[in-house]
């Protein structure tokens, strides 16, 4: 059975970037993707913070160009769902629904998915008013009102960031006690543009092309409130920060994960297993952006190439 130099799991920005670098290095590489190229970034309607992005750049257009580069360098791409992995030894096995693939090295770039609110209308407005990334989408809500869903460090830190653009930021939290660090809470409380709605959950988000209103429920007394967009604005933003779920179920007990389930790597994307690397949102890191995912993928591919050279020189 064929043994590739490199198997890349996932065709998001990290996986595609790894594919570009591996292809240029003449590594015999295959990318395995269970769904559609791009991952979470496909939900982003506009991108203006990725270096070199065009005036009408979207997640889809950026991924299309990345995928075209991967194809240009002769990297094979197979759409199959990974069901099990065997990562020990010199030859790694990736077991998928249709076939088993073998390689000398593996880059895991399966990403992470943002936890949903779970309310009516959520799917309709993802990328059209609902965002999981203030850094990506905050500038699009300049002088508009925004709501931040969550009560942890990420929610409050992103709420503070959003005050640079929004005219008002309201943090919606299902409990009275916030989960964020006290130091983060104190900074937030001092910001005049930020207010809080406690004991509150989102039940429904409504509108035509853009968000026009939001139904909230008080979990203590069951009362219902409808928040409507300012008539002069026509819409508002909803930023959701209630956590992420890394796609690491297959690697539990095989790779070293942190307490939240992210793969731990060093600065060269190396995991605790030789010849196995992780890149992008699936690994433990401080910033999850397309630019850092692409950088991770490039580093991982270069390191995989060096590892193969060392194997072949033995």
TrEMBL record:
This is Thioredoxin reductase. GO terms for biological process: removal of superoxide radicals. InterPro entries: FAD/NAD-bd_sf, FAD/NAD-binding_dom, Ferredoxin-NADP_redctase_2, Pyr_nucl-diS_OxRdtase_2_AS, Thioredox_Rdtase. It catalyses: [thioredoxin]-dithiol + NADP(+) = [thioredoxin]-disulfide + NADPH + H(+). The lineage of its organism: Bacteria, Bacillati, Bacillota, Clostridia, Peptostreptococcales. Residues 4-297 form the FAD/NAD(P)-binding domain. Its cofactor is FAD. GO terms for molecular function: thioredoxin-disulfide reductase (NADPH) activity. PANTHER family: THIOREDOXIN REDUCTASE 1-RELATED-RELATED. GO terms for cellular component: cytoplasm. The keyword Flavoprotein applies.
């Amino acid at each position: 059975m064929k043994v590739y130099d490199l198997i890349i799991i996932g065709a998001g920005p990290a996986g595609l970037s790894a594919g570009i670098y591996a292809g240029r290095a003449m590594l015999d590489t295959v990318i395995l993707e269970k769904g559609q190229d791009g991952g979470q970034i496909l939900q982003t309607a506009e991108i203006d913070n990725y270096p070199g992005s065009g005036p009408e750049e979207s997640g889809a257009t950026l991924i299309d160009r990345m995928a075209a580069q991967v194809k240009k360098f002769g990297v094979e791409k197979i759409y199959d769902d990974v069901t099990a992995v065997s990562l020990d030894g010199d030859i790694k096995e990736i077991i998928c629904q249709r076939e088993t693939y073998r390689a000398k090295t593996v880059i895991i770039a399966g990403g992470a998915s943002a936890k949903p609110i779970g309310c009516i209308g959520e799917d309709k407005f993802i990328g059209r008013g609902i965002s999981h990334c203030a850094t990506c989408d905050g500038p699009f809500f300049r002088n508009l009102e925004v709501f931040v869903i969550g009560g942890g460090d990420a929610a409050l830190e992103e709420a503070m960031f959003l005050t640079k653009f929004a005219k008002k930021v309201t943090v919606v939290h299902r409990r009275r006690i916030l989960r964020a660090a006290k130091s983060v809470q104190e900074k937030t409380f001092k910001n005049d543009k930020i207010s809080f709605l406690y004991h509150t959950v989102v039940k429904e988000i409504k509108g035509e092309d853009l968000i026009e209103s939001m139904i909230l429920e008080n979990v203590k007394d069951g009362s219902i409130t409808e928040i409507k967009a300012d008539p002069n604005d026509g819409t508002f933003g909803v930023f959701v920060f209630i956590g992420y779920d890394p796609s690491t179920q297959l690697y539990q007990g095989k790779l070293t994960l942190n307490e939240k389930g992210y793969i731990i790597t060093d600065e060269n994307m190396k995991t605790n297993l030789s010849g196995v690397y992780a890149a992008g949102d699936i690994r433990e890191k401080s910033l999850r952006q397309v630019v850092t995912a692409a950088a991770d993928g490039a580093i991982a591919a270069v390191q995989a190439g060096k590892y193969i050279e060392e194997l072949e020189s033995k």
